[in-house]
What does this fold into?
Amino acid sequence: MRRTLWLTAMACLLAVSCVGAGETIRLRFGFETPETDSQFIGADFMRKFVADQTGGQLVLQLFPNSTLGTGPDMLSQMRGGSLDIYMGGSGFFATLAGKLNILDIPFLFTTVKQIDSLLEGDFGRLMLDELDAYDMKGLAFWENGFRCLTNFRNPVKAAKDVIGLKLRLPSMPMFLEAWKILGTNPVPMPLSELYTALETKTVEGQDHPLNVTYSAKLYEVQKYISVSNHAYSPLIIAMNLKKFQSMPANVQKALLDGALAAAKHQKKFIRDNISKMLKEMGDYGCEIVPAEQMDMKSFSDGLGTKIRDIYLNQHGGDVGKAWIKKVDEWKE
It folds into this structure.
């Protein structure tokens, strides 16, 4: 009996260790945004990169536009192993690895230089490694961008302008709490349902980075775009941990290198094209409230330290303080 169990165990180990011994490896990669978005552009770059690095051995099969479900759906699928790679907002991952909620604190970052320095360095790797405990391998941070507010009710220039606004938000606790404090009526909703909800006036507004508002054509059913830049949203690219560990070393390296190379490509695309996107949305008929006309102090004063305090209360005081201190020091 013991010999049979031993032989079975060895057979399983050999099956895993043989993965990629010349045979094609196909990995399913899902995300919510459409083919016109920077996320697809980055994913397609990564697809070509890893194929080149492995001589065609590794094939990424892309599933954009919520083909496989909502963000939380795909996160669950990836952890369970039915989906190999998932890309989504850091806030979705923070529902499991709670310390990552630090990235959802409004007004934490003000420049992309601060962000790149933090997320591309050792502290960024430390944050991604938090996912190991939840059966995920963090590959890299990509860019979602600075979030901006849109709505069809009235121009928003100050915090008083959002009171009572029925605002769609992702199912991320920090975002929901922040906008509740500011007096809006937050409505959690997946991106796949948002266009119709705005068109039918089920909700009045939403907050997304401008590139997502553009690629998902949300501006077609909105009147006002406020360049509020109230929070920076990174994306996380993660893979099922056991699947990653089962890959040969050359494939693991290709995945990590490919995710980082694609991050740079994707960020550059957004930053090179964001002004053009904003102009096109204005030309379509949206009224743009530029950043210099925004009274962002009224928003930050309205929130005070409430969101930071929630983070510190949730994450054990000393640990939370250490992470907040690290981020604040990085910005100086």
Remarks:
- The first strand starts at residue 25 and ends at 30.
- Residues 203 and 213 are 15 Å apart (CA to CA).
- DSSP finds 14 helices and nine strands in the chain.
